[in-house]
Automatic annotation (TrEMBL):
It comes from Paracoccus sphaerophysae. Residues 318-337 are annotated as: Disordered. Keywords: Signal. Residues 1-22 form the signal peptide. The keyword Secreted does not apply. This is Polyamine ABC transporter substrate-binding protein. SUPFAM superfamilies: Periplasmic binding protein-like II (SSF53850). The keyword Signal applies.
Length: 349
């Protein structure tokens, strides 16, 4: 099943019920659509004979709101900047690191935060990482135009751009475009400058994409030619024979993100199976499945080494050769401020 198809099915079913794919009833995983592909956690299926039950969400804030409102699952898959919000709300509990041997093989840079690991325990298991940069139609967009993030405010591209309907990603873009590469130390002046730039970029937006399938369809249909994009969309567009380029070396830079699993408090399922699922995810053999299915890299250094020579790793996940804004945990109050401002900008204010 392709990511486009699985995402479309999940979105259709999400209007009916959050639980889109029911399988092993003793473990419910709240996840992004597409991550239900068996090759990512084959070890779990080998042990238990079936996949977990998956429920899906479209973005991190939607996931948080559902869980905060009482939706029950055993584990969830937020990106790193959300973990402090879950901790502050008392929705998660620490993992027992002794039951996850491959934690020792996770690249230390992904655990370098007291939000993830402190004297109270291991609150987060980083599992996958990706990049956000400029995807563009190489037949319609000159390479020099995407050498800068200012392409998103270039009047020549009015109605021809798309941005993610994600506050984290659009603010990463806006900060980079206005000279900020560390969003953990943003001043009021820098915030306002980025907000003003984002309002200008909004004038060029044809549509905000909700998920990679949505973005791929916007580009493949010819509706837009330039996108602020996760790297997973490259594989989707390549399958459509779309002439896609991916510019990660714009002079202002690009962004990176990583995601992982939290252990939800009072989950209704089998705790042992939650650990089996995480151990399957972190098995080095899963790295190729993750790359093939989603296009992301494994945080497990042993797993990533098995695919290190793959062009998709080198081109989409390796050294970008320019400034990087890493989407690591930032001040929750600042993030809420960004989220509120983004909603105003999308509404035309």
């Amino acid at each position: 099943m392709t990511l486009i198809r699985s995402t479309a099915i999940a979105l259709a079913l999400s209007a009916i019920t959050p639980a889109a794919f029911a399988a092993d009833k003793e473990l419910t995983v709240f996840d992004w659509a597409g991550f239900e592909e068996p090759s990512i956690f084959q070890g779990y299926i080998d042990k238990h004979g079936d996949s977990p039950t998956f429920a899906f969400y479209g973005d991190d804030d939607e996931a948080y709101q559902k869980l905060a409102s009482g939706f029950k699952a055993d584990i969830a898959h937020p990106c790193s900047q959300m973990v402090s919000k879950y901790r502050d709300a008392g929705l998660i509990e620490p993992w027992d690191a002794a039951r996850i041997p491959a934690v020792a093989d996770i690249d230390p840079k992904f655990l370098n935060s007291p939000v993830f690991k402190d004297d109270k325990g291991l609150w987060y298991i980083p599992t996958d990482f990706g990049s956000t940069a400029i995807a563009y139609n190489t037949e319609k967009v000159p390479a020099e135009d995407v050498s800068t993030l200012q392409v998103f405010v270039n009047p020549a591209y009015q109605g021809r751009t798309t941005l993610p309907d994600s506050a984290d990603d659009v603010w990463a873009l806006a900060y980079l475009a206005t000279g900020v590469t560390d969003w953990t130390k943003v001043t009021d002046e820098q915030f306002q400058k980025a907000a003003d730039w984002l309002r200008e970029a909004h004038k060029n937006v044809n549509a905000y994409w909700a998920d990679p399938a949505d973005e791929a369809q916007l580009m493949a249909s010819g509706a837009v030619d330039v996108a602020w994009s996760w790297n997973d969309v490259l594989a989707l567009l390549a399958k459509e024979n779309y002439p896609v380029g991916y510019q990660r070396a714009a002079k202002e830079g690009s962004s990176t993100f990583f995601c992982g699993f939290i252990n939800l408090k009072d989950g209704p399922g089998n705790e042992d199976k939650a650990y089996d699922f995480i151990n399957a995810w972190l098995d080095p053999s899963s790295a190729k499945g993750l790359l093939d299915t989603i296009g992301y890299g494994s945080t497990n250094t042993k797993g990533l080494a098995t695919v290190a020579d793959d062009p998709r790793v080198k081109n989409g996940l390796g050294d970008a050769g320019g400034p990087i804004l890493a989407q690591t945990p930032n001040d929750p109050a600042q993030r809420e401020k960004q989220l509120a401002e983004f909603e105003k900008i999308k509404a035309g204010f």
